[in-house]
Amino acid sequence: MKTYLEEIAKDVYAFLVWDDSWDSYNNCYWLLEDNDILLIDSGKEEHSRFLFSALNGKGISNSDVTHFIATHGHKDHIGGIQYLGEVDGFIHNNDLELIPKNLRHKLKMNLPDHGLTAGNLKCVLLGHHTKGSVLLYHRESKALFCGDHICFFAEPLNGNKVVDTGTLEREKFQQFVSDWSQNEEMKRQHNFNLFIEGLKAVTNLMLNIYVRDTA
């Protein structure tokens, strides 16, 4: 099983595991803040041993994780939480129907539509990929986590590096959105307008942060 672990900013780590069934990477992230360890998404249940092995390699055990936030309720983002210890877990209430009953006790359904959550992360409801999909922004590292609102399937890592300028990926994504915008059936079927509203939310958040930080 191909996995990657890389520090993407100070005390912010990305963990990737290749999933043949999706033909894509499943991504998880963890943030180290003072005495807290915050995990964003947890991958599939069957891949959890790889995630926890990576955590163990940094001297972190399953029970050390203090907070968990799901960008949305699909199984490749929440499957591993059942193996965490006593953790404060969060997800948006709109994704309640996606959460298996045996996992609901691990999650508080109170992520805000627009506001702060655990770890002082800014949370904004996107609501396209799932009804409760959110983006999360970590101001200290300037890292933004948008779940599966933006996806790159079957894309190899450039030079086996998780962190990259993403020039080729941006070009492909722009072409994907352009093609989608010209297909009326696909636009209606997959709620293109809501997807674009999500992109605007991401863009506006980053612009506002840029203006504030450079003022």
The dominant shape is globular
Please estimate the helix content: 25-40%
List how many beta strands DSSP finds.
10
- Termini distance? 46 Å
Roughly what fraction of the amino acids lie in strands?
15-25%
Radius of gyration: 17 Å
Kindly identify the CATH topology.
Answer: Metallo-beta-lactamase, Chain A
Short description:
With 215 residues, the protein is α+β, with helices and mostly antiparallel strands. Helix content is 27%, strand content 25%. It is built from 5 helices and 10 strands, in the order ββββαβαβββββααα.
Describe the structure.
This protein has helices at about 50-55, 75-80, 165-180, 185-190, 190-215; strands spanning about 5-10, 10-20, 25-35, 35-40, 65-70, 90, 115, 120-125, 135-140, 145. With about 220 residues, it is α+β, with helices and mostly antiparallel strands. The chain has a single domain (about 5-215), classed as Ribonuclease Z/Hydroxyacylglutathione hydrolase-like (Metallo-beta-lactamase, Chain A), CATH 3.60.15.10. It is globular, with a radius of gyration of 17 Å.
Observed structural traits:
single chain, 215 residues, alpha+beta, Metallo-beta-lactamase, Chain A, 6-stranded mixed sheet, 4-stranded antiparallel sheet
Q: Secondary-structure blueprint of this entry?
A:
Elements: E1 3-9, E2 12-19, E3 24-33, E4 36-40, H1 48-57, E5 67-69, H2 75-78, E6 88-90, E7 114-117, E8 121-125, E9 134-138, E10 143-145, H3 167-181, H4 184-189, H5 192-214
Parallel strand pairs: 4-5, 5-6
Antiparallel strand pairs: 1-2, 2-3, 3-4, 7-8, 8-9, 9-10
